[in-house]
Amino acid sequence: MHQSERDKETLIKNLRKIEGQIRGVQKMIEDDRYCIDILVQLAAIKSASHKIGLKLLESHTRGCVTTAIRDGGGDDHIAELMDVMRVFTK
Amino acid sequence: MHQSERDKETLIKNLRKIEGQIRGVQKMIEDDRYCIDILVQLAAIKSASHKIGLKLLESHTRGCVTTAIRDGGGDDHIAELMDVMRVFTK
Amino acid sequence: MHQSERDKETLIKNLRKIEGQIRGVQKMIEDDRYCIDILVQLAAIKSASHKIGLKLLESHTRGCVTTAIRDGGGDDHIAELMDVMRVFTK
Amino acid sequence: MHQSERDKETLIKNLRKIEGQIRGVQKMIEDDRYCIDILVQLAAIKSASHKIGLKLLESHTRGCVTTAIRDGGGDDHIAELMDVMRVFTK
User: What is the arithmetic mean of pLDDT over B62-70?
Assistant: First the structure.
């Protein structure tokens, strides 16, 4: 079960934005910008990565997990979902 | 108070690594890779951004904050440090 | 869909343990114990609360969400699951 | 360097509130309340514990760490502060 083309475009657009933010932070460090301002940018990057992860979790649950459950199974998929949530929310 | 040249190099090296990971995630989405694998990558990106933030917090505290306290002040710097920690640990 | 009696007992046992830890922190503050030691205890409380939440999320997904999907629906349950994950992982 | 009596009272009051929330969650589980409602409560407990931790971090930085820096040292205190932040923000 894959992302729809539209979802994929949105995800990639958001990832490109994060890529730009990461490059922005590199420049801030090169330019000796004030630490606090850099930290605020890093917090924004973490938060944006988290939001993308939640989006993926949602489409994965709606897709793979739902299909597996409808096919009479799903136990393994739910176990896997919980494992990744443990890693992702650490 | 700035980062030392050596610290700056390490920070930028680590940020370039994250930039590469972000591009890797874009490619994984384009290639319809399995969501769980993408989520593990996103968790790694969040964790790496967090570590860079902690490094910056440390050098900022050792630098700016310490200097301000030694100069007989520091109250504003500590307030600002706590504000950024609130944002950063959200 | 409810927790099994056994799961409920485990959850309540773990919550009682956290309750004891919270009282321990109160005593540490009354006794002017070293801040760092108190913070380590608070980190343990946060981590234990998080683990209980993940356990509940898992049994909820295996229970309510799976049942709803098997009954041909589940969309609302998945939306609700994602909403609570947004709150829970903030 | 200890908390002021007033700060201690506020901290203990907030911890008692969390203790009450933990007992509330136990009752919700005994009463088979809806998982999502319990998870919202657990998220509130985590968030309240986090806020208490930030308060303690702030008074510790204003107290112990500032005193140590004014006395011409502080390196060990900053290292310890960063260690606890690593644990606390995990």
Answer: 93
Domain ranges of chain A: 5-88
**ipTM for the complex shown:** 0.89
User: Cβ of A57 under 8 Å from any chain C Cβ?
Assistant: yes
Which residue on chain B is closest to D88 by alpha carbon? B89
pLDDT band for A22, please (50, 70, 90 cuts): very high
Tens-place pLDDT, residues C30-43 = 999 999 999 999 99
Q: Report the residue count for chain C.
A: 90
Quick one: how far is CA C46 from the chain centroid?
9
The backbone torsions φ and ψ at residue B87, rounded to the nearest 5 degrees and listed phi first, read: -65, -45
Nearest to D18 among C12, C22, C29 (CB): C22
The Cα B35–Cα B16 span in angstroms is 24
Homologous superfamily of the C5-88 domain (CATH): Metal-sensitive repressor, helix protomer (1.20.58.1000)
Is C82 within 8 Å of chain A by CB? yes
